[in-house]
């Protein structure tokens, strides 16, 4: 094995330096707890601190005592109430349930009642009550039994301690007017009737209803509308392809007429008709339809 380094005669190992922390001298290797639950140690003249790590080996520890950092298992905290070690108690809604505090752990024991009985809030006899049967409309029902009133499935009833409680099945909220609602045979809730098929197209602006297949112009002679089978209105515009410099525009007609004559300065002239120019009286014009 390699030999360990040997010290020469007359030499010694220098001692580890002490630590100064907040005006206090600490021995090398010393450990202490600072305020705020920080664990510190003096190592090689430096102070090393870290948060105190708590190991909690119980399920219901008590909060840390005054001046301490970690919760304690010498007692129990159950439902906000501090319990001493070995304390036996009943929860607020335990119904004869018994709990005990041992080393910070809470163990509870509930009574087991035989069939035909039920837990009682009285600690003296936790299984003393016996559920009563229900007699309803000539029938007898056991405690907890559920059944439908009149067998229609619209009303659910339950037997509770000799009393029958019934409730109606909730119905959805309908978004149709009252006159369109109806109750079908074998159903518990009303439903909306299907709206009748449209017989035509109804226009809200002027109150006129057009039959299916009806063609009309809504005011613009270049726009033509048709009433479709589903009650909707489909409109298309007419594009005028024939053009000429001086067309005749006929009221109520979409496209100007280039075959009937000419329109010049607000006057209408027939084909091959001559007339003086409005701009120069010495010029003569003629209407030619091409």
What does this structure look like?
With 290 residues, the chain is an all-beta fold. It has five domains: 19-51, Complement Module, domain 1; 59-113, no CATH class; 134-167; 201-237, Ribbon (Complement Module, domain 1), CATH 2.10.70; 245-289, no CATH class. 0% of the residues lie in helices and 33% in strands. It is built from no helices and 26 strands. The protein has strands spanning 19-21, 24-26, 31-34, 38-43, 46-51, 76-78, 81-83, 88-89, 98-102, 105-109, 134-136, 139-141, 146-148, 155-160, 163-168, 181-182, 191-192, 200-202, 209-211, 215-216, 223-227, 233-237, 262-264, 267-269, 274-276, 284-286. A three-stranded antiparallel β-sheet has the order 3-4-5, with no helix packed on it. A three-stranded antiparallel β-sheet has the order 8-9-10, with no helix packed on it. It is elongated.
Summarize the model shown:
This protein has 290 residues and is mostly beta strands. The protein has strands at 19-21, 24-26, 31-34, 38-43, 46-51, 76-78, 81-83, 88-89, 98-102, 105-109, 134-136, 139-141, 146-148, 155-160, 163-168, 181-182, 191-192, 200-202, 209-211, 215-216, 223-227, 233-237, 262-264, 267-269, 274-276, 284-286.
């Amino acid at each position: 094995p390699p030999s360990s380094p040997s010290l020469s005669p007359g030499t010694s190992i220098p001692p580890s330096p002490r630590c100064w922390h907040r005006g206090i001298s600490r021995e090398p290797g010393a450990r202490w707890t600072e305020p705020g639950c920080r664990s510190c140690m003096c190592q090689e003249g430096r102070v090393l601190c870290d948060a105190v790590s708590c190991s909690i080996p119980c399920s219901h520890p008590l909060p840390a005592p005054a001046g301490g950092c970690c919760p304690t298992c010498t007692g129990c905290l159950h439902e906000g109430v501090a319990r001493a070690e070995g304390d036996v108690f009943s929860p607020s809604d335990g119904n004869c349930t018994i709990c005990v505090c041992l080393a910070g752990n809470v163990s509870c024991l509930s009574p087991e009642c035989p069939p035909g009985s039920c837990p009682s809030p009285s600690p003296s006899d936790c299984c003393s009550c016996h559920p009563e049967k229900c007699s309803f409309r000539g029938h007898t029902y056991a405690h907890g039994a559920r059944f439908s009133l009149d067998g229609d499935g619209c009303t659910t009833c339950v037997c509770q301690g000799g009393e029958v409680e019934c409730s109606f099945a909730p119905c959805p909220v309908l978004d149709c007017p009252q006159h369109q609602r109806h109750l079908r045979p074998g159903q518990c809730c009303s439903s909306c009737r299907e709206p009748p098929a449209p017989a035509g197209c109804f226009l809200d602006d002027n109150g006129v209803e057009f039959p299916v297949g009806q063609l009309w112009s809504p005011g613009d002679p270049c726009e033509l509308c048709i009433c479709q089978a589903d009650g909707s209105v489909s409109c298309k515009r007419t594009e005028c392809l024939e053009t000429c410099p001086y067309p005749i525009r006929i009221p109520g007609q979409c496209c100007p007429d280039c075959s009937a004559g000419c329109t010049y300065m607000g006057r209408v002239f027939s084909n091959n008709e001559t007339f003086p120019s409005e701009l120069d009286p010495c010029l003569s014009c003629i209407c030619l339809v091409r």
